[in-house]
Every structure is written in C-alpha cells, then in structure tokens.
Write a structure and sequence with these properties.
The chain is an alpha+beta fold. Helices cover 18% and strands 42% of the residues. The protein contains 2 helices and 7 strands. The strands form 2 sheets. It has a 3-stranded antiparallel beta sheet with strand order 2-1-3, with helices on one face. Strands 5-4-6 form a 3-stranded antiparallel beta sheet, with helices on one face. Strand 1 and strand 2 form a beta hairpin. The longest helix has 14 residues.
Length: 139
C-alpha cells in the first residue's frame, strides 16, 4: 500500500453550507505542508488560512512501465446538488488505476443498495505533487 496526502480547503459560507476546494495530492506530509503555506498567500485563501486540511489516504501500489502514469492517482467521489442549493460531496477513495476505481464503485453500490445507474459518482485523474484548479486563489 502506498500513502498519499490529499489537501482540501473547507470554509463555512452560510450557517449550513460548507464550500470545499480540492487543492492537491502530495507524496509526503512535508510537500503537503509546503503547498498549504504557498496557498495561504493566494487571494481568497488568505482570508481563511485555517480551512486547509491534510487527509491521508492509502492506495494500492501498482508498478507500471509507463513513466507518465506512475505519478497518477484516481479519485472516486460523489457529488449531489439539492434543490435548496446545498451540496453533498464525499471522497470514496483513491486508486492506482481508473479500472480499480470503477470496480470499487460497483461493489460500493451493491453494498449500499444504490442503483447501478445512480448519478453523481465520478472518477478524476490527479497528478501527485501537482496542484489542481485553485492555484492563484479564488474570489
């Protein structure tokens, strides 16, 4: 098993509404802390420096010959927006391949009695030690 360090930023927007931003997947705790220190200076994030969280996740360790695929992980998540504009989002796990993420999702749906065609589940490819969408901040 390989461990990764996932950074997200959470801030309270309204009484019952949290806003989440996924920041980065890092290979070490130290790299994650460096990313957070950099992001604390960006517009928007500078007003909410306490919102950064580092979560450890294990993924299966798979050796691949393709060098460009070695530093990729696949995030399996769930997202649903309700009619009152509240949002439910959850990370179900990180995986070494897209195929493994989809296999896990099938088992997850069976275990939790979710219809196979249920919407809101997604798989995203992330590069380890590379930032996601929010570099530079937010408004």
């Amino acid at each position: 098993m390989k461990m990764i360090y996932f950074i997200e930023h959470i801030r309270k927007v309204e009484k019952y509404f949290l806003e989440r931003k996924y920041i980065a997947v890092c290979s070490t705790q130290e790299k994650a802390e460096e990313v957070i220190e950099k992001f604390k200076t960006y517009e928007g994030f500078e007003n909410f420096p306490e919102g950064f969280k580092i979560k450890r996740h294990f993924i299966d360790k798979v050796r691949t010959k393709a060098k460009k695929e070695r530093n990729k992980v696949y995030l399996l998540g769930f997202y649903h927006e309700y009619t009152d504009d509240t949002v439910d989002s959850k990370i179900l796990g990180f995986f070494s391949t897209q195929k493994k993420a989809k296999e896990y999702l099938k088992k997850y749906k069976v275990k939790h009695l979710i219809k196979s065609k249920a919407r809101g589940f997604y798989v995203e490819r992330w590069c380890v030690d590379s930032n996601f969408h929010w570099e530079g901040g937010f408004f």
